[in-house]
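Page 42, continued from yesterday. The earlier attempt failed because a stray header line got pasted into the input along with the sequence. Redoing it now with the clean sequence only.
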Amino acid sequence: MALFFNIFKPFMKIIILFLSCFYAGLVIADATIITPPSSIAKWYKPQNKRQVWLHNMFQLRRARHAVGDYAMANNNKLLNKWLEKYQKSYLKISQMVPEFKDEVDLKLLQKLKQAAADKDYNAVSSTLRQLDKTCNSCHNDYRATTVLLYRSADFKSHKIKTKNGDIGYKKYMLELTHTINRIKIAVADDLPQNAKAQIKELNQGIANLSKDCDTCHKQKPQADDYFNQTIKNKIAKLQIHLKENNKKDLNKTLGYIAVNACAICHGTHRISYDIKQQILNR
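This time it went through. Structure tokens are written below.
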């Protein structure tokens, strides 16, 4: 058992990633998927310059916490200040997405305002909890699918810039996979010149991809996190191992690159993108 674990330990992240994708596919296939009204799209990028819906939810949540805290502190002045903000954000829900009109409980909102006016802080707290249930009802139905549809990356029409022109994302990623496998094949078949050429292709391929990260991740360190100095050193070591004909360390180093320059990002982007496509194609 220990020998088995040691052999597969370097590949555990990839195995877990594969099983996660497989399981997610089964869940999507069998589950009833509830998607949000299409009108919500105009409050998210790319149809909007900002994530307007998301920020309204943040404002609503912040105001809710403030109202609850000030009710517990019997601070009527600050409670009413934040209650105005809460009401504004709560009413925006059906204003922005008319299909959510029936989800907004105006009677409970009025009850909350009356409790605040009466300085009945216990009633304020209990009514807030009732309003929380109306929020949770929608969240249970729509939050997960909304995140997948409108907050996860969409690579379908995305292209990677290379010296030979723009290449579609799926094709580019597939070619990177081929490159890694060509290195392993060339090493196994004692074709060092082929392996050397493919290692050079891998280095350029990852470099191109890292630059593309900046199109969404605006902070400069993002590309550095992906194509960091450790990965660069590992790629340089591939050439050293190849020159020394050290197949064991070459394959080990290649495995490290596959996990840390490929699988880690796949764990965030590929799973969400694949599930998103399954939802859209239903």
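Notes: The chain has eleven helices and two strands.
Reminder to self: strip header lines before submitting.
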